[in-house]
Amino acid sequence: MKFLNGTPADSYDVVVLGSGAGALTAAATAARGGKSVVVLEKSRLLGGTSAVSGGMLWIADNHHARDAGLTDSKEAAGRYVRAVARGRSRDELLDAALDYGDAMLRFTENECGLRFIFLDNFPDYRQDLAGSVAGGRTVEPELFNIRDALGALADHVRSDGRAPFTMQEYENWGAFTKFPWEELNRRQDEGLVAKGHALVSMLLASLVHDGAALAVDARGQRLLVDGERVTGVKLESGEVFHANDGVVLATGGFEWDKELADSLLASRLHAVCSPPSNTGDGLKMAQRIGAQTRGTREAWWAPMAVTGDTRDGEPVGTLLRFERQGPGSIMVNRNGQRFANESQNYNDLARCLHSWDSPNHRALNTPAHVVFDHSYLERYGVLAHRAGQPTPAYLIEAPTLSELANRIGVPAPNLESTVARFNESAVKGEDPEFGRGLSAYDKYWGDDDCPWPNPSLGPLQTGPFYALEVVNGAFGSNGGVATDGLARVMDVDGQPIPGLFAAGNTAENAYGAGYPGAGATLGPIMTMGYLAGRTIAGQPAEYHAAPAPAEVGA
């Protein structure tokens, strides 16, 4: 174990296990409430899964939307989220996330110094459901100078390794071939970070300001219990930390414990992009003392490619976004046929890939591939690959569609007819089979500069042709320890366990099986972390203060 900030001690008011956005929000909220806090991170780097995320927050009826004159309400958002959640959300948690999301947002801005960009035109993911809006529920962190704010501590914060661009810029620029790389390199040299890296760094800056203790290589092993109350934590290394007021479990999900993931999740995961330290430690610690669990079949599902990227020495998947949403690419299944709207949100698309694939049994839609032509590669590139470079091992190339079909193991006549049928409609801006390009969300992630009528659709015409295998992946599991609306962990009888709180992917997802929009991971996660911190500090869930200004997105 190694302390990076604050005064080492064996007793604090609040002991927080984990250092993602949920953990850090709980810690920062409690620290702002006057509590002494220690944050214990299992790995050698701070930030958790949040640090390698897009850093966006989905907050319904937020003050930035109201200031911009956009119409929204918690009632409309509630109807929408309940529909998206497929009946698997719990009202107490869902209502807490909606009712106090903006309180959390205002608190972290006014009290902790976080700054956000308001995305007034980022559509909710399911535009076909009542209560959805075309924009105004998503915010993302501003660029943040980590060197100026954290100094040497910056080297101990996890990064996704990408250039410092915002998600708003990503949408505006589209493909990586259009990015202003000289500007991005300048930002990096200046110490600017973006997305999840910026989010956790802002929260860490607040904790440093308040003198909180931060430690890494500190894996929690067991909760200490006196009577019915949780009073502290014992680490794997033997150290003991006593908590005067509360312990917060926020150690991430269990997706890296393959045996546990296979036994609990609704589908096998073939790739994840979270830190390998997410092995369900908080879930197991809570279970040992009789905590209730809920929602463990769910994850933040996403279609991914396995390209050789690693995190902490372990192979990780790469989210496929524009690669499948850009005009001129399609996805096909094992029969060489399209099976879904490729431009829909990643969570719903990944559900089409769910299976328990084995060498002797495969589901209809797996293996799946993104297929595109050379003109697409010239316009946009694919992941880190650009036209003119040697074809990487993760891409399959062939001069004709027939040969490509043979190389990926699908019937050639099916692939040829699938592409011909798609092309005939795509040049007219239509997709009669799956409705791609109809919704505001589809068009948001398309290319407004493409030469065809619909920014989401374009033909595949020019050889050579390429295929990239797509697998069912996830950002992390999102079910676990059951809590009430104040983030207090519940026992198997539904009663709060005194002194124990949970947030983040360690806990049950407030939105159940739902993924309503960009930031629907971190929005409710930070809200529950905020509620944990406010409860521990003896403060009301609501927060009253004037909102801080935010930059309005184009």
Average pLDDT, rounded to a whole number, is 95
- C-alpha-based Rg, rounded: 23 Å
Strand content: 15-25%
Please tally the helical runs, counting DSSP H or I stretches of 4 or more residues: 17
Please give the structural blueprint.
Blueprint: E1 2-5, E2 11-17, H1 21-32, E3 37-40, E4 57-58, H2 63-67, H3 74-84, H4 91-110, E5 116-119, E6 138-141, E7 144-145, H5 146-150, H6 167-173, H7 181-190, E8 192-193, H8 195-209, E9 213-216, E10 220-226, E11 229-235, E12 240-249, H9 258-264, E13 271-272, H10 281-288, E14 293-294, E15 299-305, E16 310-311, E17 314-315, E18 318-319, H11 322-325, E19 329-332, H12 346-351, E20 368-373, H13 374-380, E21 395-398, H14 401-408, H15 412-426, H16 440-444, E22 465-477, E23 480-481, E24 488-490, E25 496-502, H17 522-536, E26 551-552
Parallel strand pairs: 2-3, 2-12, 3-9, 5-26, 12-25, 13-22
Antiparallel strand pairs: 1-9, 4-6, 5-6, 7-8, 10-11, 11-12, 14-23, 15-18, 15-22, 16-17, 19-20, 20-22, 21-22, 24-25
Helix pairs in contact: 1-8, 1-17, 3-4, 4-17, 14-15
Which features would summarize this protein structure in a list?
9-stranded mixed sheet, 21% strand, alpha+beta
Overview of this structure, please?
This protein has 554 residues and is an alpha+beta fold. Helix content is 29%, strand content 21%. It has 17 helices and 26 strands. Strands 1, 2, 3, 9, 10, 11, 12, 24 and 25 form a 9-stranded mixed sheet that branches. Strands 13, 15, 18, 19, 20, 21 and 22 form a 7-stranded mixed sheet that branches. A hairpin with a 2-residue loop joins β16 and β17 (314-315). α1 (21-32) runs parallel beside α8 (195-209), α1 (21-32) packs parallel to α17 and α4 (91-110) crosses α17 (522-536). The longest helix is centred in the N-terminal third of the chain and has 20 residues, at 91-110. It is globular, with a radius of gyration of 23 Å. It starts with a strand and ends with a strand.
